[in-house]
């Protein structure tokens, strides 16, 4: 079974560490007026009322602080089904009276964050990739700060390369700890576009199982030919879409929508020194079949 190999989770993705400046964004469940329900996970942290007393809501038109009011369970399931319902916990947060209109709310960040939000850079016109610009002998891994939960325990972190076969076909090859995966994405099925500092390849190698017809089977986000995010359609969408740009304290961060196995979540992508980091907070409860 294929996995969406987006390897960007730190310990801070699941619990804020005091020394970490940034933690993974929380996903928005629902918005009603000044009240926002934020996905906390299958269970809320024991100290949620103190550690997550304040959240900064990020929308398409700005940022605003919201305060914790309590938690609520959210359960899904068919009453006629013999399977038990699948539940998770949301935190209820309320903005102060007179808070600005945020537009569409995108994510929630732990604590108070002061900065600005702007729409992502426009995409350039799509074009066909030139094989000579992408082929390589070396395998490269995407942003990797600890593979779990996207790579099963004991499963090697994959590397990727575009390589020319003896027959002259350029395909995406995968290397799992020295074992080669079957080529599955021909480069001639891909389009290429620029967006800000990034280059994106979207590929249509054929209708993947359980994916929407006409959507890409793979989406790969690069910077200077280095893969940052690799997403495959696997019981869901393949996407590496930029949804907003944040500027905080002179630094730039990017909110990117990442397609994982059975879900898509918005993560925080940014450069720290010479390294790129990607912080994601995927669901820690079942999402397939819900």
List the SSEs and their pairings.
Elements: E1 26-32, E2 35-41, H1 48-51, E3 54-59, E4 62-76, E5 86-95, E6 105-110, E7 116-118, H2 131-134, E8 158-164, E9 170-176, E10 179-180, E11 185-186, E12 190-195, E13 198-203, E14 218-223, E15 226-232, E16 240-248, E17 251-260, E18 263-272, E19 275-279
Antiparallel strand pairs: 1-2, 1-6, 2-5, 3-4, 3-6, 4-5, 7-16, 8-9, 9-10, 9-11, 12-13, 13-14, 14-15, 16-17, 17-18, 18-19
Keywords:
disordered N terminus; 2 helices; single chain; 2 domains; 19 strands; mainly beta; 6-stranded antiparallel β-barrel; about 290 residues; signal; Lipoprotein
Structure write-up:
The protein has 290 residues and is mainly beta. The protein folds into 2 domains: 96 residues, no CATH class; 157 residues, no CATH class. Helices cover 3% and strands 45% of the residues. The protein contains 2 helices and 19 strands. The strands form 4 sheets. A 6-stranded antiparallel beta barrel has the order 1-2-5-4-3-6. Strand 9 and strand 10 form a beta hairpin.
């Amino acid at each position: 079974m294929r996995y969406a190999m987006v390897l960007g989770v730190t310990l801070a993705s699941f619990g804020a560490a005091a020394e970490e400046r940034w933690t993974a964004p929380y996903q928005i469940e629902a918005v009603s007026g000044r009240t926002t329900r934020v996905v906390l996970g299958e269970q809320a942290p024991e100290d949620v009322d103190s550690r997550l007393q304040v959240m900064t809501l990020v929308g398409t038109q700005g940022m605003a602080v919201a305060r914790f009011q309590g938690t609520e369970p959210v359960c899904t399931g068919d009453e006629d089904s013999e399977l038990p319902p699948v539940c998770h916990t949301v935190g209820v947060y309320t903005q102060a009276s007179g808070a600005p209109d945020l537009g569409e709310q995108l994510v929630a960040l732990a604590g108070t964050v002061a900065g600005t939000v702007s729409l992502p850079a426009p995409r350039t016109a799509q074009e066909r990739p030139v094989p000579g610009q992408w082929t390589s002998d070396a395998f490269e891994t995407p942003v990797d700060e600890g593979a779990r939960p996207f790579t099963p325990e004991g499963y090697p972190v994959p590397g990727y390369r575009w390589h020319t076969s003896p027959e002259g076909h350029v395909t995406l090859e995968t290397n799992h700890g020295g074992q080669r995966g079957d080529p599955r994405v021909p480069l001639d099925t891909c389009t290429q576009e620029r967006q800000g500092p990034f280059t994106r390849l979207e590929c249509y190698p054929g209708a993947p199982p359980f994916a929407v017809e006409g959507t890409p089977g793979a989406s790969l986000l690069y910077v200077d030919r280095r893969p940052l995010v690799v997403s495959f359609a696997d019981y869901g969408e393949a996407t590496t879409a930029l949804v907003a740009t944040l500027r905080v304290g002179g630094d730039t961060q990017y909110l990117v929508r990442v397609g994982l196995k059975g879900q898509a979540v918005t993560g925080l992508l940014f450069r720290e020194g010479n390294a790129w980091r990607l912080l994601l907070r995927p669901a820690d409860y079942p999402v397939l079949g819900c």
